[in-house]
Amino acid sequence: MESRFTILLIEVGIAVSMQVVTLVAILVTLRKTSQRMEALANDVQRRTGPTLDNLQALVEHTRPRVEMLVDNIAESSTLLKVQAQKLDSTLSDILDRTRRQVVRADDLVSRTFDKVETTTETVHNTVNAPVRQLSAILQAVSTGLSVFLGRPPRARNGNTQQDELFV
Predict the structure, then answer these.
(1) Fewer C-beta within 10 Å: the chain N or C terminus?
(2) Please, are residues 127 and 166 in contact by the beta-carbon 8 Å criterion?
(3) Beta carbons of 163 and 135 less than 8 angstroms apart
(4) Those residues with Cβ within 8 angstroms of residue 127's Cβ, 6 or more apart along the chain or in another chain
(5) Gap between the Cα atoms of 30 and 36, Å rounded
């Protein structure tokens, strides 16, 4: 039994030794990998460091300008809105006034046409009636003179209508 125990101990020692060798190999590999990663990180930091510093400076430098630009745009938007409201109010007022003036002009033209029509009728009645009466008087005088002088009266074949249209 002792020999079995000795064999077991030797097997355990060999197994532990193999694990130690494996762990040492892993440790060496990890150190090499760590050194490579450090070198790579340093290289990335060396290359991107100035760019990031410049970017940070640019952001710090342009931030007030961007804020001022945003404020100006907001202020301009507010002013534009106010001006648009004023323009809308002014145009509405102009349209209302224009509508009122158009209605007034329409009334004026209508009244003028009514007066012209009334005046035309009045002139027609005041001028045509005396002209007809004068025409009738002249025709009567003509007929009377014709009879008095012994001439036969003239026949009026359709001339009545022409006499009425004369004016």
Answers:
(1) N
(2) no
(3) yes
(4) 167
(5) 10
pTM of structure: 0.40
Specify the pLDDT at position 164. 52
CB 5 within 8 A of CB 12: no
Chain CA centroid to CA 31, Å: 69
Of the candidates 166, 113, 111, 96, the one whose C-alpha atom is nearest the C-alpha of residue 136 is: 166
End-to-end distance of the chain based on CA atoms, in angstroms?
165
CB atoms within 10 A of CB 131: 14
Whole-number pLDDT of residue 129: 77
Q: What percent of the chain has pLDDT over 70?
A: 90
132 neighbors 164 (Cβ within 8 angstroms)? yes
Pair of tokens at residue 161? 């209508």
